[in-house]
Amino acid sequence: MDKKYNYEELLDIIHQLRSENGCPWDKAQTHESLIPCLREESEEVVQAIENQDMDNLCEELGDVLLQVLLHAEIASETGAFTIEDVVQGLAEKMVRRHPHVFGDVKVNSKEEGLALWKSIKMEEKRQKNLEFS
Q1: Other C-beta atoms within 10 Å of 71: how many?
Q2: pLDDT for 51-107, tens place per residue?
Q3: What's the N-to-C CA distance of the chain in angstroms?
Q4: What burial class does residue 14 get, using C-beta atoms within 10 Å of its C-beta: 0-12 exposed, 13-18 middle, 19+ buried?
Q5: For residues 37 and 67, what is the distance between their CA atoms, to the nearest angstrom?
Q6: Which of 126, 127, 107, 129 is nearest to 117 (CA)?
Q7: HEC string for the chain
C-alpha cells in the first residue's frame, strides 16, 4: 500500500468498523469479548521482544493499539469515555509521576526515579481511597 494513514484516519477506520455498515465481528465485540484478544496480542508483543524481532514487534504493537482503540470506541458508544480521555489521562499521569522531568524534583539514578514513581502512585491510590470512603 502506498497510502500513509495518520492517527485521525485510524480512529475513523475503527469507528467505521463498528458503525451500522461496519464489520459484523467488530460490531459484536464488547469489553468482555475482547479480553482473550488483548491477552493474546500482549503475549505476542512479549514474544517479539524476547526474540528481538523488531518487524514483528512493530506489527504486534499495532495489534495492541487496535485493542486499546476498540475498547475506547466501545466506551465512547456508551458515553463512558473517549480515546481523547484516555490520552488526556495518560498524559496527566506521566507529567504528574515525573516531577523530576516536568518539575523541579531531582533524582540521581533510575532507582531513585522508580522510587519516586512508586511513592507518587501510592499517594494517588491513598487519595482515591479517601474519596470513595
Answers
A1: 19
A2: 999 999 999 999 999 999 999 999 999 999 999 999 999 999 999 999 999 999 999
A3: 54
A4: buried
A5: 8
A6: 107
A7: CCCCCCHHHHHHHHHHHCCCCCCHHHHHCCCCCCHHHHHHHHHHHHHHHHCCCHHHHHHHHHHHHHHHHHHHHHHHHHCCCCHHHHHHHHHHHHHHCCHHHHCCCCCCCHHHHHHHHHHHHHHHHHHHHHHCC
Reading the block at residue 5, the C-alpha cell is 494513514
Asked if residue 33 has pLDDT above 90, the reply is yes
Task: With CA atoms as reference, report the closest residue to 101 among 89, 122, 91.
Answer: 91
